[in-house]
Amino acid sequence: MEINFKEIFTAGMILFAVIDILGSIPIIVDLRTRVGKIQSEKASIVAACIMIAFLFVGESILTLIGIDVNSFAVAGAFVLFFLALEMILGIRLYRDEEPKTASIVPLAFPLIAGPGIMTTILALRAEYQTINIVFAIVLNIIVVYVVLKLSGQIERMIGTNGLGVIRKVFGVVLLAIAVKLFAANVKDLFN
Question: Are the C-beta atoms of residues 20 and 170 closer than 8 Å to each other?
Answer without folding.
Answer: yes
